[in-house]
Every structure is written in C-alpha cells, then in structure tokens.
Amino acid sequence: MRITAIAVKELKCVKEDLSFNLATLVSPLLFLLAFFLMLSSGILIPAQVWPGTDSSAFLRSMEDFRAPDGTAYLELRPAEENVPPTNAESNLIAVEREPEAAGGLITGRIIHYLNDVNENMTKNFRNRLSGAIVDYIEELRPGGNVLVNELTMYAQDIPWDTGFGVSVLVFGLMLSGLVFGMLSITGEWANHTAALLKLSPGASGALLAGKLLANMLKCCVSGAAFLAVFFAISGALPVHALCFVCSALLVCCIFACLGMCLGIYVKSSLTAFLISLVSALVLWVGGGGFGPLSYFGDAANALGRLNPATYAIEIVRWCYFSGKTQLAAGFAALMTALLLSAAAIAAVYARWIRKEGA
User: pTM for the full model?
Assistant: First the structure.
C-alpha cells in the first residue's frame, strides 16, 4: 500500500517538472525525425559527369546502378566541361574513353576527380564508382567468371532510416529512465521534502520501490508515444513482441536506478537533466547506436562489452528484424546490469540517509 501511495505521489509531481518531462519525450523524437527526413529516400550522392548520359553508354548504365531496395547510388548531373571541380562543386566523373570489349579485353579510361575532405564520403564515392564499373563489365561480357552468393543476416534489406529509428528507440528508453529517475530525487529538494525522507519511519526499500514503479510507468508512456510516432512514419512493428517488452522494461529499470543515483548527488534538476542527456547519448553511441561495434576499433569493442546499451540495441534490433543474435547472453547481461544498478541505488540511498541523519 505504501509503495502504491509513493508511486501515485510521484505521478502527481509530473506537473511540477513539466518542461523536463516534455523534453525527455521530445528529444528522441526530434532525433528520429531529423535523421528520418534526411534519410527517408536513401543516401543519394550527387556527382557531376562528363560528357553526359546521352553520350555515354557507361554513364547511362551508371545512372541505373541501384541498391537492392531500388535506391540509386549516385545522382548524376552533367558537367559543362572536363576540368577538375572547384571546392563548391560535386565530384566529377569524366569518361574520356568509353569502356568497350574487343579481342577478349575490356578497355577504357575513366577519371574520377574527388572533391571531399571526409574520408568516409571519399570511400563511398570510390566504392560506388567501382561497383558501377563492375556492373557495366558484366553487361559487356555475358557469362562472367565471378559469381557472388550473398548470405544475409536478415531476411530482407532494411531501410537505413527504419534501422536507425529502432536504434533511437533504445536511446529514448535510456534517456527516459535517467531523467525520470533523476527527477524523482531532485524533486524532493525542489519541494523542500528531502529532510522528511530521513525522518520517515518506513523502510527505504519501499520508498525506492514506489519511486521506481512511478518511473517505470512514465517510461512506458514515453516509450508508447515514441513507438506510435515511429510506426506512423515507418510502419515497422516488432515481430517478437514479448522479448521487446521485456528488454524495454529492463532498460528503463536499469537507467531509472542510475538516474536516481545521479539525482542524489547532483540535486539540481537542470544540471542532472543535462548530465542525463549527455550520458545517454555517449552510452548509446558507444553501444553501437550508429552501427555495429565491429565497425570500430578494439578499444570501442572492449568498452562496448561493459555497456548495457550494447546488449539492449542488439536485442531490440532482433525483436524488429529477427536475424542472428546471442539472445540469452544479451538478456543475461541486462539482468546483471539491473542487479548492479539496483544495488547501487540501494547503497547510495542508504549512505545518503545516514549522512543526512548525522
């Protein structure tokens, strides 16, 4: 009964920190919408070409070179002349001698003027031009001697924006847990009731359980709002609903406990909110929010194994897209993180009560 009363009191206090509660809901949505709008059509890279698709069979083939989902790799725009582009212009692909097959050989001369200081974009330009050339060579010689058999993790290609949206969902759960947990503690100082906590005759476990219950309810509302918006713009739903719900609740509970620890030490709602936002973002990126950690170095992978966000992101992706994953190990890691975070808030709160009572 006492736990329920504490949870009800925490829910009523939402109106006292309405701006922070709204920011917690809106932040991941803005993050999602910004990337979704930029990537809803796929990543189409502009490039200048010479002499133009009307005069070059290779460039016409390159214009039709597309990703498996039908998105073109390059947006070709005719250049006025065959000269290196200025800093304000796109890359230039100049076909000086059309590729052609003769005497069992395929010859041609294509010059690619790279005009980008970002090594990732440079790599993308090179790969897409190389892919277009290989694709055109297969057109020139029927029955080539190189065959590619793809063994994919997922049953179908996943749009970048949908995959990113699923990843942002974990960021939203982490941020919600941290902020709601933090507000449940810092609100005691804002309402001048912190001193009453040390005088409470009830067990501290009931108080923490009541606050945690209220935080979980608020996280559920925040997560449901995100899912509704995400479904409206992507039409994607988890195919493993039970595992998804379990993993989402675990993530919220872990970070709500950590948020309460943060609130005890920081005391200021504004400062704690900023720390929560930065912490959630760093942990999310370090857990593979922008892509699998295999893309990064050994140090990032070592730290990722200690980061609960890593396992949360992998499980949630599996819940949406199936594929291959270490599900049992992932849930075991999240359960371990939950036990550690619960022990941390119990220890931190007990120490704080003793310190306040001294």
Answer: 0.74
